Hints:
The chain has 96 residues and is α+β, with helices and mostly antiparallel strands.
Amino acid sequence: MKEYRDASNRLTIEFAKIKVSKYSNLTKIIVKKFDLKPLSLKVTGLDEIFQDFILDNKKVALEWNIWSGYSIYSKNINAESLVLKIGNFVKYEIED
Length: 96
């Protein structure tokens, strides 16, 4: 697990070892566990998959790309605590 702020100052948590084949299942588990609602459609590109979600006024993105693996990042300042909770859930309950 790697935690940092990206160039847009968004809190980001990465799990480099999580493979693309786990994106859909892991995202479903997170969405159910944290009662997230889709904010956008899932986008699947050649080297990335991502979708935005919301809980109350907290906006988060769940993404996988070839450079970082599975990533969780805040889309607004209100979501930082949620990003940390999701990151800890993945770290302690999911990650191999």
